[in-house]
Design a protein that fits this description.
Blueprint lengths: L6 E5 L7 H10 L6 E6 L7 E4 L2 E6 L8 H21 L8 E5 L10 H5 L3 E6 L3 H8 L2 H21 L2 E4 L2 H8 L9 E3 L6 H4 L14 E6 L8 H13 L4 E6 L5 H10 L6 E4 L7 H6 L3 E4 L13 H8 L4 E4 L2 H6 L6 E3 L4 H13 L2 H14 L5 H17 L15 H9 L1 E4 L8 E4 L16
Parallel strand pairs: 1-2, 1-5, 2-4, 5-6, 6-7, 7-8, 9-10, 9-12, 10-11, 12-13, 13-14
Antiparallel strand pairs: 3-4, 15-16
Helix pairs in contact: 4-5, 8-13
Length: 451
């Protein structure tokens, strides 16, 4: 079919708001194949868009951030819609590669129709599902959910031809979780894309001013520790430091953070501003003294590497960050101002050290941080991803499953897997046994010898 899609991305996310999905989908266009992205439809977004060889399909759904059952229902509904799309939409009849972005890991189930036709599967683990579940839900729900998520993760990895992770800590963790067969893994970092942020900016001193201007940009949720950041700025001000923080973005914690600012009477120290367009973000961030990364430490974030951290460093901005184990693997102590995670008092101490540093000392740390991240700059990450795409596209597709082996719904699928139920003759005729259909679709050499 002319114009048939050959690479499809599935993501329970918004497009182009999810920067990882966007940059990887745009990178796939360099293969010369037609690419489709299937995502959630946000308010006032078109259901379908086309731009050259890229097609964006947006399905109904939303991220409500409610309880575990609501999450599960929303995940399952989106997965089912994606599966039906790949099974019945003629545009996807010739798909060669299905690139599944998590969460959830069981979104790979939606790729089954394309896999039966010979498509290759990429599993892109944005997060680690078991740790995400355990950190989000406490008690019995968290423990049971984490155990179930571990089994789902293993199942998803076994189905994939290639598993992509976002950093070294997650890749090292997966190496300890055997899936019972050889696995190919690739790390593609969430480095800042020069198409969005321009080339890396050499660190430069901002205009001289009496107040230290800190900035945070992103989603406002408890995980990202904005309450710790606000309390830390207030305590630094109580020690006589002239400091102010600007928060760019929105999210479910916005009202709660506003009330916290009111309770602390910190309206002069904390400013909330709406999210700015991507094209305006570099200039907005570059006008501040330092970027703030106050992520809380828990079982999931100890393996995470913040996009904000990488973007600040790409722009040559000094960074004040919570000392997460994963951050320390990429950014040494002498390249940032670290503080103890979840500790507002220690953040105030770090702000004091930053304020006492000379402009030359600030530039030196920012320069060391930027140089340390040169090995994971996006152009190199993009080439690694493209090499993986080309390898999967060049490999001969596996033969499609025979029609007898394709699962059918309901009773037919049960019979093909387990046999047909028949009544057993004799005095105990009420008992049932299974009769397996002969495997006639197998080649003669593969058929079992008759008893």
């Amino acid at each position: 079919m002319p114009g048939a899609v050959e690479i499809v991305h599935l993501a329970y996310a918004s497009f182009p708001a999810d920067t990882r999905v966007k940059r990887e989908a745009l990178a796939a266009l360099a293969t010369g194949r037609r690419v489709a992205v299937v995502v959630l439809r946000a308010d006032r977004q078109l259901a379908e868009e086309e731009s050259g060889a890229l097609t964006v399909l947006r399905l109904p759904g939303r991220k409500s951030r409610r309880g575990p059952l609501a999450y599960l229902g929303e995940y399952a509904a989106f997965t089912w819609r994606c599966r039906r799309l790949l099974a019945h939409d003629p545009r996807f009849a010739a798909v060669r590669v299905v690139h599944v972005h998590t969460l959830p890991d069981f979104l790979v189930w939606a790729a089954a129709p394309a896999q039966r036709r010979g498509a290759r599967l990429i599993l892109d683990l944005h997060e680690i599902f078991p740790e995400f579940t355990a950190s989000r839900y406490s008690g019995v729900v968290g423990r049971l959910g984490s155990a179930l998520a571990r089994r789902i993760e293993r199942w998803a990895r076994r189905r994939a031809d290639l598993t992509i992770t976002v950093n070294r800590p997650i890749d090292d963790l997966l190496a300890t979780r055997d899936i019972g067969r050889p696995e190919r893994r690739l790390i593609v970092h969430n480095s800042a894309d020069p198409e969005d942020f321009g080339p890396p900016r050499p660190p430069a001193s901002p205009p001289a001013r009496s107040t230290i201007e800190l900035i945070y940009h992103g989603t406002l949720t408890p995980l990202y520790g904005l309450d710790v950041a606000i309390r830390g700025v207030v305590r630094a001000a109580e020690r006589g430091l002239h400091v102010r923080v600007t928060v760019l973005g929105d999210g479910p914690q916005r009202d709660q953070l506003g009330r916290l600012v009111g309770e602390l009477r910190a309206e002069a120290l904390v400013s909330f501003q709406p999210r700015v367009p991507q094209a305006e973000l570099p200039a907005r961030l570059g006008g501040c003294d330092a970027g703030l990364v106050p992520t809380r430490l828990d079982g999931m974030t100890r393996y995470s590497l913040s996009n904000k951290l990488l973007e600040y460093m790409h722009l040559g901005l000094p960074v004040l960050a919570a000392r997460l184990p994963s951050y320390a693997q990429y950014v040494p102590e002498n390249a940032a101002w670290y503080w103890t995670p979840n500790d507002a008092t220690d953040l105030a101490r770090a702000i004091g050290e930053f304020a006492a540093a000379t402009p030359a000392q600030r530039l030196a740390r920012a320069r060391r941080a930027q140089e340390g991240l040169a090995t994971i700059a996006w152009p190199g990450e993009r080439e690694r991803l493209l090499a993986a795409y080309r390898e999967l596209l060049a490999a001969p597709p596996p033969p499609p499953l025979p029609s007898h082996e394709i699962p059918a719904p309901g009773w037919r699928r049960y019979v093909r897997r387990h046999g047909r139920r028949r009544r057993r003759p004799g005095p105990r005729a009420s008992r049932l046994h299974l009769w397996r259909r002969p495997r006639r679709w197998l080649p003669a050499a593969s058929r079992p010898d008759p008893a």
